[in-house]
Predict the structure.
Amino acid sequence: GGDGVSPAYGTKTGLEANEPVYCTAPSACQTVTDTVRATCTGWKTYVVDPLTRQRTFEASGSGTTYEYVHDGRWHQLEWQWQEEFLVTVTAGAGGTVSPASQWVTNGSAAVVTVTAEAGKAFSRWSGDMSDGGRFSSTFAVTAPVEAEAVFGNLIYVATPETGTTGSPFLQPTALKVNIKATQTRTKRTRV
């Protein structure tokens, strides 16, 4: 964030004692990039030691305006911005996702409806996804996300406990099966 602040970012010199400086930031949401936008939520001021550059917190407030009156000390004004990130998702073969895109506040959760076709199940996300959200339709957002829902086939295994239909489970993308071959020998007798 920060486009359109007045005075512009940087150092303002040549102020007289008790001279007021009217500071403003845009009240509307600002586009930072195609996938990041920010809204000014307030300000903080610090007194700065000119020798050590160490900052000491002075005051804070909400809103997009601040009136500074020069008292002879160095001050720093820091605008506070709430970022939002674009979350864009698509569906691979076997299902759908909704919404396809949404803006999510930094640190909040994106909620996506993931619907699998008959005989399929949601497996995971591929793409810009943290490991914590890779297998869920709700995930925390701390950066822009572009991901695709991956669906897998449901397969059934019959066991003596479940009968002939078995219980469904998701077929993994890579399934390693070890099959032990057994031979049946038939003895032949000549007559």
Notes: Confidence is low (pLDDT under 50) at residues 172-191. The longest strand covers residues 74-91.
